[in-house]
Amino acid sequence: MAGLNLAQYPSILVELGNMKNPADSALMESAEGRQKYANALVRGVAGFLATQGQAR
Fold first, then answer.
1. Which residue in the list 15, 22, 47, 52 is annotated as catalytic?
2. Record's superkingdom (predicted)?
């Protein structure tokens, strides 16, 4: 977390699940699950950027 405070560029930390939860862990360990997480993250970032004004 300290690395985010020292970043020279905007940064985020994304927690996609809890490794102690068996269902979350199984999803994160499978290629299909990781792809689902990646797709959801891309949709979220793209959706956020679509709400922002023109790039500065």
1. 15
2. Bacteria
What is the rounded distance in angstroms from the CA atom of residue 45 to the CA atom of residue 34? 16
Amino acid at 22: P
Structure-model confidence comparison of residues 9 and 2, the more confident one: 9
The tens digit of pLDDT for each residue in 9-29 reads 888 888 999 999 999 999 999
Active site includes 32? Answer: no
Handedness of CA 42, 45, 49, 55 (dihedral sign): negative
What's 52's DSSP letter?
S
Q: What span, in angstroms and rounded, lies between the C-alpha atoms of 24 and 11?
A: 24
